[in-house]
Amino acid sequence: FFFLMCLQPTECFLSQPEEEQETAVKAKRRKKKKISHILQKSAPKPGVPVDLQNLLTQHFGENRSVIEIEELKLSDSCFLPANDLTHSFSSYLKEICPKWAKFWRNHTDKKSVVMLVLCSSALRSLELIKSMTAFKGDCRVIKLFAKHIKIKEQMNMLEKGMFHIGVGTPGRVKALVEQDALCLNSTKYIILDWNWRDQKLRRMMDIPEV
């Protein structure tokens, strides 16, 4: 078949499939643009306490009694103002935690952090660590995600070192807590990276495993 095509190029009908491929590619591109266009119309909104409460109720509702569900509810006083989406990450942290220097300097507990930042991926964790430079000062940050870092390595670091901020993914943080490698008794702040979307356009809270 290939030999005949080479001998008789005039009878080769490759041009039509190429046109079809180009049409298909253009159609896909048009679809992607359309999806992006729809997402642009739905502007991100700051997370509010009721959003988290609804997720907790939805997740535990089938397996817990009414009394247990009530015990899971957090009072509004547990929540600090959400980022109104005009702040950089550092400026937002400075606003909600003006006494940060005092907190981290008084922190002496190993296997723990004062502030825990949860986001949906390792790459996003690295991005947030870079963007909090102006806020964190001289305090130590530990990466709490699975990509390129073994859990044993993180367990050793938490046991031997002193860290003030942990930035990572829910899966790895959960694993460390379950193995008693990370204690949350000294944690004063938990920051949820609420609106950021991954390549599949999912927020952290849209991922079923979370």
From TrEMBL:
A GO term from the CC aspect: 90S preribosome
Pfam families per record: CMS1
Protein name: CMS1 protein
Organism of derivation: Chloropsis hardwickii
